[in-house]
């Protein structure tokens, strides 16, 4: 980027450069934040709880999964485990971004990992790959607007979600499966995607009919992950990268 | 404090562990076994599929139409486009078939 010359002037311009890059993410995540707030209230959360979950967990898909299971009166530990499972990909992000931000003070690193979402990782990693330093001011400029908007918009969604009269006619109860299907399809370029989806779908349906909810989530997820582990690594395309 | 509150706190801690854990673990190992990496790569699709498949099976024509449209739009559009298309079809179909 040509404007990168100004980054030598110091933290302030770095910060605003990050803010500019954050705008598409702010716009794209806004509808999901509002939707999360509305669905959270629909599934029995208070406005404060919806706000707290966005502020503390700050992971869109996992928050949706959490409230979906909450609405099904699933055991608390399984809700937490599901949030953990959906966010588990962040293990890979933090493993990858760690070497880019190792020069920051420890407190800054701790905060940096807190706001490490999918787009945050993607944009920061792209900057590092292009040979530029990932500075704290730039990283914060990229992440802070997304965080603040996410939390405020979820609270707004929760407040106004209460005012929706007929949630069935508006399809509110089935929006989450549609959203999750969208997420699943978004991963379709990954190695072993189709076998994993088929295994998880079959196992979760069978478990849903026999063992019952909420176990179908864990059983289906384990089936898909085990299949990926068992199949020879060269089928997964992992080895080719190394 | 309510159960919901503690679920949120525990979920927040679990999430933060994933966001810092990869760095903490990877700085101790030289490389990850390819099978473990394949398993990690499969986690999101495996988990999210279990939240769609049984719901789709026990749904009706309006919901099926929405899911099919979502899948078709995914061939071209991003997450937002597929979601909005699916939601629009669902709302429309429910006006007619309930």
From TrEMBL, chain A:
Keyword Cell membrane listed: yes
Transmembrane regions listed in the UniProt entry: 21-41, 74-92, 136-161, 167-185, 192-208, 214-232
Record localization: Cell membrane
Domain of life: Bacteria
InterPro entries to which the protein is assigned, alphabetical: Brnchd-chn_aa_trnsp_permease (IPR011606)
Pfam families given in the database record: AzlC
Record keywords: Cell membrane, Membrane, Transmembrane, Transmembrane helix, Transport
Keyword presence, Cell membrane: yes
Membrane topology according to the record: Multi-pass membrane protein
Sequence similarity: Belongs to the AzlC family.
PANTHER family: INNER MEMBRANE PROTEIN YGAZ
Protein name in UniProt: AzlC family ABC transporter permease
TrEMBL record, chain B:
Domain of life, per lineage: Bacteria
InterPro entries registered for this protein in UniProt: Brnchd-chn_aa_trnsp_AzlD
TM ranges: 6-26, 38-58, 64-93
Alphabetized UniProt keyword annotations: Membrane, Transmembrane, Transmembrane helix
Pfam families reported in the protein's UniProt record: AzlD
Name this protein carries in UniProt: AzlD family protein
Organism: Mesorhizobium shangrilense
